[in-house]
Design goal:
Two copies of one chain form a homodimer. In chain A, helix 1 (13-24) links the parallel strand 1 (4-8) and strand 2 (30-33). In chain A, 54% of the residues lie in helices and 8% in strands. Chain A is built from nine helices and four strands, in the order βαβαββααααααα. Chains A, B: This is Glutathione S-transferase. Chains A, B: Is involved in the conjugation of reduced glutathione to a wide number of exogenous and endogenous hydrophobic electrophiles.
């Protein structure tokens, strides 16, 4: 099998997605931390369109964009556990909810931070909590009591949403507010703890403290 | 095979994507035009999260989000021509470029319209043309002289980009500017003409005139 390299930045949830997918499939890879303030020739050449991490280098092939890479990993290494389910309708659901998290729900967390005025902020938080109820329902439906959106093990929705937990907690701490409210979404809150401790995740997802140090300018690398 | 219905709105490029995919696979379906100002119970129940078209109803299953539906169609009806290529790396490329068009390039066309001031508008147009050069290169690479991003026939990138051609032409006419510049991207311009005339597309993609009537308030349905 051709050599696998990952160009990343430790605090990027998009890089974390790829690391989790590689861990789930037990794929050995060389991790190459990137300095995003002074981009390497390797990064510029391997992702000339976006010039961003993550980039997966698999032999002579370069793949970028986190969800594209995660699906590539699932399709190229089909001997490990599956990340996407096998039935077309279940696959459609996985892609639908991943898009919901990425395009609709998580952007509200950023919107909360940049919104000014207590009333306007409260309205954004209300939308976040409405989305949380929807995600709780989806979790209960897909997990069927088995622990993950993917069932007995981490799957596509778990990776896409779970990778954002570190930054979600940072926003909770820095904004002094709760988003992942246990009283509203008890199953999802328990899932978040379970996901964070999963062996494919535990060494990958940065701690809230490290991320807060980063935004405060104390940390430039891990 | 279970009955197939599509909830749509004729002028939506996202609905057009699904129509093209269904046509490519020669799937018979019932098209149900929706009034988006007064949403039907069927729409609200079949897409409770977004309450938007397109929704594909396949037997007792509801699928929404255009790119999710197109991938579902490709996976659920695997006896027709393939929409995504078969090799994982080629599939990754198809998804990468579809995301580039959707998230990065086409939004510039909307940004051009809402940008004020000649100089600022010119800067946005410059970015659109830079993206066009990138898309021209991608087209030449993937088509290998065979006519489409997908090779001899329409594929995933063709559908995602091609569905936007109607609205691209509307913006060109209403803004008095050229985006799909033949001198910059001759291959892509020829592809656009070829795509529009393809039998799976010709009856689906609305004419520029009809779309302009719509935005001028003259037309509410086809």
């Amino acid at each position: 099998m051709a050599a696998v390299k990952l160009l990343g930045f430790w605090a990027s949830p998009f890089v974390n997605r790829v690391q989790i997918a590689l861990n789930l499939k037990s794929i050995s890879y060389e991790y190459i931390e990137q300095n995003l303030r002074s981009k390497s020739q390797l990064l510029l050449e391997s992702n000339p369109v976006h010039k961003k991490v993550p980039v997966l280098i698999h032999g002579d092939k370069n793949i970028s964009e986190s969800v594209v890479i995660v699906q590539y990993i699932d399709e190229a290494w089909n001997d490990g556990p599956s990340i996407l389910p096998s039935h077309p309708y279940d696959r459609a659901n996985a892609r639908f909810w991943a898009a919901y998290v990425t395009d609709k729900w998580f952007p509200l967390v950023s919107e909360y931070r940049t919104t000014e005025g207590a009333e306007a902020k409260a309205a954004v938080r209300e939308k976040i909590l409405e989305g949380l109820v929807i995600l709780e329902e989806a979790f209960v439906k897909f997990s069927e009591g088995r622990g993950y959106f993917g069932g007995d093990n981490i799957g596509y929705i778990d990776i896409v949403l779970g990778s954002l937990l570190g930054w979600l907690r940072v926003r909770e701490v820095t904004q002094g507010v709760t988003f992942l409210d246990k009283t509203i979404a008890p199953e999802l809150a328990a899932w978040a703890d379970r996901f964070t401790l999963h062996p494919a995740v535990a060494d990958v997802l940065p701690t809230t403290e490290k991320l807060i140090e980063l935004i405060n300018g104390f940390t430039k690398s891990k």
